[in-house]
Design goal:
The chain is built from 19 helices and 9 strands. The chain is α/β, with parallel strands linked by helices. It has a 4-stranded mixed β-sheet, sandwiched between helices. The structure holds zinc ion (4 copies).
């Protein structure tokens, strides 16, 4: 049944609908691949040139000479959606926005709920404005989810442009909006679901690939800013930027905003007092400082995986004490893991790779089960109906997993927190990993 077009745009509803659609459409990286989404939902998307070729008519949807209109969406009598967009003299970013805006009209059910929208006849200017604003609010939140931007610490225009593919203007609007953004308490479940979906993207720093393009020629580690004179991973002097896809080294302990570890990497102690820099139980350094501070280097805060001080090139504490391996070893481990992952992905007899595994490991960490967490770190999991396969080559892992109470803890976690009916957990050594290690040595 046709409804009345609202007097004012329902901005919050549009944003929450976008968040809901982020979860439903299952996206887990940015920028969003809108063509893939349209394909998934069976919405046809054609550029004006493609439409011309298909229909053998010039400008069949009269878009070429209506410069104020970038796209149109049609709902066919059979209930199929059809989007056509202008592809001449418009940038890729503008096309992305336009299509997200049109998806907004579809997902907000503008064409189903309001009869007046039919081929844009019968809409007053005010009514049209209301629906346009709603579709824009949807596009902005779907392409650049506020919570993801905050968690990736990408809240400035330039980062938003790179990470989400927005235009400068749209990114600037987003930057302003983020300053006043507060998660909607009534829709907390949505933010949680989005966070879970984007867990790897955020916490395994996959987003570095979009926002940093300058990498170290030696180890391919991303260089964050021109303040860095030395590479944080291999310690070599940073030469002018090399534009290529880099490697994310993220093997160090996780740190909080003030640069302190969440758990002591040596003794797993996690109760620290305000301002503690050394573990009260074992005396290990809780921050990854430069070891050259006595000789005047004042850069105190380094990331958990940094081996060298980016300011003076000296070793960091975590590297000097042997907590972090040399970058070559880290690099090797990343290659082994990727190789194993590919092998396991190809082998469909033992189920599917569990993409949420790192997120689940985080739940274990939040449960303060640090023993289980550290034994499982770096492992790969597959799910085959009700059987969970865990692959790892760490000895700690094989030791711990032979105790049945750890297995029952994992089964319980899956059932209660993830609603997945896991019956059995099989732990397997990451054969492939060791195999490659042997042949390469
Ligand atoms: Zn529109
Ligand atoms: Zn390097
Ligand atoms: Zn300790
Ligand atoms: Zn230093």
């Amino acid at each position: 049944m046709a409804k009345k077009i609202p007097l004012y745009p329902r901005i919050e509803l549009a944003k929450n609908t976008a968040r809901d659609f982020i979860v439903k459409s299952g996206i887990n990286t940015l920028p969003v691949d809108l063509f893939a989404i349209c394909k998934k939902y069976g919405w046809t998307v054609k550029s004006v040139s493609e439409a011309e070729e298909l229909t053998d008519e010039i400008d069949p949807f009269s878009l070429r000479f209506t410069p104020e209109c970038d796209a149109k969406t049609y709902l066919t009598p059979k209930g199929k959606y059809f989007i056509v967009y202008r592809d001449e003299v418009v940038s890729k970013r503008r096309i992305l926005w336009t299509i997200a805006h049109e998806i907004g009209h579809i997902v907000l059910k503008h064409l189903e709920d309001f009869e007046e929208t039919e081929i844009h006849r019968g809409l007053t200017e005010e009514e049209n404005e209301v629906l346009e604003k709603e579709a824009d609010a949807f596009a902005s939140e779907y392409l650049a989810p506020s919570d993801i931007l905050l968690l990736c610490n990408c809240t400035t225009k330039n980062f938003i442009v790179k990470l989400c593919g927005l235009s400068n203007q749209a990114a600037e609007n987003k930057e302003q909006a983020l300053k006043h953004y507060k998660p909607d308490k009534n829709h907390e479940y949505l933010n949680k679901a989005i966070h879970k979906q984007f867990y790897n993207f955020i916490h395994n720093k996959e987003f570095y690939h979009s926002i940093y393009q300058s990498v170290c020629p030696c180890c391919k580690n991303y260089i964050f800013s021109n303040r860095e004179s030395f590479c944080r991973l291999c310690g070599s002097g940073v030469s002018p930027s090399v534009l290529t896809e880099g490697i994310v080294y993220n093997d160090g302990p996780e740190l909080n905003k003030s640069g302190r570890v969440l758990i002591c990497p040596k003794c797993s102690n996690s109760t620290f007092r305000e301002g503690d820099t050394l573990c009260s139980r074992c005396g290990f350094s809780l921050t990854n400082a430069c070891t050259n501070s006595s000789a005047g280097c004042n850069i105190k805060l380094h990331g958990g995986s940094a081996r060298y001080c980016y300011g003076c090139g000296s070793e960091t504490i975590f590297f000097k004490t042997g907590l972090l391996s040399c970058w070559q070893r880290a690099n090797q481990l990343i290659s082994y893991r990727e190789f194993t992952l590919r092998q396991l992905e190809d082998d469909s007899d033992t189920g599917c790779i569990l993409k949420e595994w790192d997120y689940i490991l985080n739940l274990i960490k939040e449960d303060s089960r640090f023993d289980v967490y550290s034994a499982l770190k770096g492992s790969i999991a597959k799910l085959d109906y009700d059987t969970l396969f865990i692959y790892s080559e760490s000895e700690e892992f094989l030791d711990l997993m032979s105790y049945s109470r750890f297995i029952s803890y994992i089964i319980k976690l899956f059932r209660s927190r993830l609603k997945l009916p896991v019956m059995e957990v099989l732990t397997l050594p990451g054969d492939v990993m060791s195999l490659v290690a042997v042949t390469e040595d």
